[in-house]
Amino acid sequence: MSRVDLQESANVNSGLDAGVDGARSKRRVRWFANVLRSYPVLFGMVLTVVVLEVATPELLSGGEIMSILNQIAPVAIIAMGLSVALSASALDISVAQSADMGAVAAGLLLAAGASAWETIVIVVLVGVAVGVVNGFVASWIGVSSLITTLAMTFLLQGVELILTHGGAATTLFSLSGSASVQFARLGQGSLGAVSVSLLIAIGIALLLLGLERRSILGREIRLVGQNLSAAAAIGIRVRRRFAAAFVISAVVGSLAGLMILAMTGIASPGSGSAFLVEAFAAAYLGGLAGRRPRFGTVEACVGAVYVSILATGLTLMGANAALQDVVEGGLLIVAIGLNRMRAYG
Fold this sequence. Notes:
Layout: H1 3-38, H2 40-55, H3 62-70, H4 73-87, H5 95-111, H6 116-141, H7 145-163, E1 170-171, H8 178-188, E2 190-191, E3 194-195, H9 196-214, H10 216-226, H11 228-233, H12 238-264, E4 266-267, H13 276-288, H14 297-316, H15 321-344
Helix pairs in contact: 2-14, 4-9, 4-12, 4-13, 4-14, 5-6, 5-7, 5-12, 6-7, 6-12, 8-12, 9-10, 10-12, 13-14, 13-15
């Protein structure tokens, strides 16, 4: 073969290689575009964490991550309760106030001499009562879930101020007796490097996950949220299932209140509602992170971890609590907007 033929052959092979590389590049670009289109919220969450890690390299160190997880219980539990309502296409903005009421009620009960177990049982019953009222008003009277739970939020705030004589705080460490000490261990004790509060949050998550995926009640609640007409057509009592979602949400919120009191040692009006923005951001961001919106226990926990990492990263960068709320609220608006664009895209 002549030198000219060899050169032409080499040119042809180079052209083929370039064409193959170009085709591969185009496939990679299309794959990335499809991933970005299918998971815009998840991509944004990952990107945010990467940026925070670059700005604060200690953020994702082993010790810092463990510290974040050990403090995550209140946000994660409230977000899980909110997700139960969201899975039924309901909005329970009183879930954080249920946590607030749970913390205040627990503090007053312990101060009155109740045992730790009596306190837990009564607070759970208070959560049941709040959920039943929410569920009845929204399901049978027909008031929107937003208005119903907003009214409940104001109602609980008033009750708390009455019970605490204007907002006086109850401090566990100032109480006598062993009950307050036992109760504080639930939030401040640890097993090795793992806090008891994290283990309790994991236990609540497992219970809710079983209810959500293994029980008839959980499946019917989700079906009511997905397609109300279809649920009614197959014989599901949609009003009862809709109301049940509010009851579960309020009970989980009251459990979060118990954890807030046990972890901080202080019960006062506003102690639980301070977690409202973080819990909403966790529930919504976690629920919108998948290919399709899905609100559930796992999604709420993923969102809670993300929001906690975000808050810790901003704190390490010197941001105050107000700025953190602004960032979390802004990210929530962006996530909802991206989900709308994906739905119509």
